[in-house]
Amino acid sequence: MLTKRIIPCLDIKNGRTVKGVNFVDLRDAGDPVELAKQYADQGADELVFLDITATLEARATTLEMVLHVAEQVNIPFTVGGGISSVEHVDALLKNGADKVSVNSSAVKRPELVNELADKFGSQCVVVAIDAKKIDNDWFVHLAGGTIPTDIKLFEWAKEVEKRGAGEILFTSMNHDGTKNGFANEALAKLSDILNIPIIASGGAGNVQHFVDTFKEGKSDAALAASVFHFGEIPIPELKKELKKQDIVVRL
């Protein structure tokens, strides 16, 4: 069985880590560089660093911030936010990122996924999908969840896999920040129809939610923010409990 991964997410706005509920009501959660080092030391498997207003404000992720975070960690590190070109990805990787996450720019121009996979390899390309369940169907949203589309989650996930995505980071907007658990039914379906790893995002509130997403949601990795940022679930304790529940993790 493949090792399951625990991934803290650093949502960045104006150089600070922030966290909200259902993508709104953001509050400060600390310095991203300090948090990144702390999580690497605690045993996080990877980190995700998302400049959440980069697309909205039509600006690129701050390369300097990426460099500072990368200097502090010795674990794989994904960067996203406003990425729309091969040149931008090249600069991010040179500054220390291991992977990049594309979201709105891939929906607007799906060929971007092909270009990035061809140039840097699929292992470098994470396609993030923010989706909301409306009338029993999941619809993709753009620009930090602010722009709805008529694109359906499962069709889009299959398309980006064909185009060369190496992983899917699926955030349920219905579950984000609620601490009521992950969208396991949708995650399990994604796992069934795709051959690439699925990262669960949105809804972590307690240790059992992580257990459930690995067992019921068939997730390959679980991403969370507030429960880690505000010290509610220490990563070493989380991993010990997962191991007790027969989930393979790196201790």
UniProtKB/TrEMBL annotation:
EC number: 4.3.2.10
Entry annotated with the keyword Coiled coil: no
Gene3D superfamilies on file: Aldolase class I (3.20.20.70)
Active-site residues per Swiss-Prot or TrEMBL entry: D11, D130
UniProt-annotated location(s): Cytoplasm
Pathway given in the UniProt record: Amino-acid biosynthesis; L-histidine biosynthesis; L-histidine from 5-phospho-alpha-D-ribose 1-diphosphate: step 5/9
Catalytic activity annotation: 5-[(5-phospho-1-deoxy-D-ribulos-1-ylimino)methylamino]-1-(5-phospho-beta-D-ribosyl)imidazole-4-carboxamide + L-glutamine = D-erythro-1-(imidazol-4-yl)glycerol 3-phosphate + 5-amino-1-(5-phospho-beta-D-ribosyl)imidazole-4-carboxamide + L-glutamate + H(+)
Cytoplasm found in the keyword field: yes
An annotated GO BP: L-histidine biosynthetic process
Keywords: Amino-acid biosynthesis, Cytoplasm, Histidine biosynthesis, Lyase
One annotated GO molecular function: imidazoleglycerol-phosphate synthase activity
Primary location: cytoplasm
Coiled-coil intervals: none
Subunit note: Heterodimer of HisH and HisF.
Similarity-based family: Belongs to the HisA/HisF family.
Function, as annotated: IGPS catalyzes the conversion of PRFAR and glutamine to IGP, AICAR and glutamate. The HisF subunit catalyzes the cyclization activity that produces IGP and AICAR from PRFAR using the ammonia provided by the HisH subunit.
Protein name per the record: Imidazole glycerol phosphate synthase subunit HisF
Organism in which the protein naturally occurs: Hyunsoonleella flava
Species classification: Bacteria, Pseudomonadati, Bacteroidota, Flavobacteriia, Flavobacteriales
